Amino acid sequence: MKKILALLMSITLVVGLSACGQKTEDDPVTPGGTETPSETPGETEERTLKIAGLDGGYGKEHWMAVAEKFEANNPGVTVELTLEKNIEDVLRPQIQAMNVPDLMYISVGREGMMTETLIKENAVMDITDVLSMKVPGEEVTVGDKIIPGFTDTLITNPYGDGKTYLAPLFYGPTGLFYNSGLVGEGKTYALPETFEELFALNETAKANGSSLFTYPTTGYFDAFFYALVNEVGGAEFFNKAMTFDVETWSSDTMKEVFAIVGELVSYNHPDTVAQANNEGFTKNQQLILDNKALFIPNGTWLPGEMEKAPRAEGFEWGFTALPAVEKGGDRYSYTFFEQMYIPEGAKEADLAKEFIAYMYSDEAAKIIYEKSGAVMPVTTASSFMTDEDPNKLYYSVYDDGAKAAMGGFQSAPAVEGVDLVSSTGILFGTINSVATGDKTVDTWHQEVVDAVTKISAAMNN
């Protein structure tokens, strides 16, 4: 507990003091809007499971419903939910007051980097034993219920020690979105199968007053870049890159990845870079709806995010994995997934493990999908989708031959002055400068190699 308290105090200093004095303490949500049941001595042990997490794009109705079912299945258990859009700001003062949640739903990759910091400080509990637990109400283990590959990544197993610390949650394929009324067989533009074919569409697009490409912000290149590394170098090459292997990042193979991205962003819509920020990213997404750009990298949340936006006549969402690097080559779609974990100091760690196991049940997975559209990485996920379900378009990408890329960088010590993978960091943030011509692809690549070299050195000290 002392470690996690000290850790969160340090996070507060790193992020800044702006939250001081502005804390809003909302009462924890009780599922179903009911009051916390009073104790009934002699009947069941009264336990409270505290779950804290992000109130994000999926909302929180599904959390409420799942928590209510878990309570019904476990007499004497009360689930307290604290779900906020600024969850990191809410949690810091609570943890400083020695009030550590039992479960945290905060994925890696968020600006506050709370989860990454907890991992670096070894303040996340080992949950490998959950994989061998039976899914409540079913005869299958959690490990067998989870889609293969999801617990073999550097996100779920950040230390490379063969143990699982983060449980994979809602997942969604990423790739290129487009207007299927404009792109496809017999349409104005053929759907490209290779990057060469993709780039060849640029001249036709220009002649039609459109641009080949746009992106919401540079942060959206993480999934694109990781999938492309798999295409160019293969899965083993990708895994080496994610361990900050300097030789891998310095290689000609990796240079090819950078070159492809560099050429692609040279075909940007003219307004892309100016709008590639938190205030203007939806304007870049609108370019696709207006047929002003043909392709945009994004995830399955995009159609919902732009649901009420105007669009060109005949517009229909289309989705594809990245084009192959060469004819007949592998095509990849990076699978983004969220995570939950048990922080060090959790008072109800065993109960938290039971809740994690329940999340993979058909009962919970179906509730989650019906209430939010979020898909759990379970082998039965497709059974919740009808043939008319628009999600079939996205989740069938792997049925159409694309391979799944998963995972991210291995946990590494912080290096002063080195920000590699945030949305404004060296690897992705520099793409704006490459797009405008302020930096060359070679300069960008070398800056990344220099950053990786520093991080690798810190890991070996």
Automatic annotation (TrEMBL):
Pfam families tied to this protein: SBP_bac_8
InterPro entries: Bact_solute-bd_prot1 (IPR050490), Bind_CPR0540 (IPR022387), SBP (IPR006059)
Keywords attached to this entry: Cell membrane, Lipoprotein, Membrane, Palmitate, Signal
The keyword Signal is assigned to this record: yes
Chain segments carrying region Disordered: 22-45
Bias (Low complexity): 30-41
Domain of life (superkingdom): Bacteria
Signal peptide extent: 1-19
PANTHER family: ARABINOSE-BINDING PROTEIN-RELATED, POLYGALACTURONAN_RHAMNOGALACTURONAN-BINDING PROTEIN YTCQ
Record-linked NCBIfam families: bind_CPR_0540
Name under which the protein is recorded: N-acetylglucosamine transport system substrate-binding protein
Organism name: Proteiniclasticum ruminis
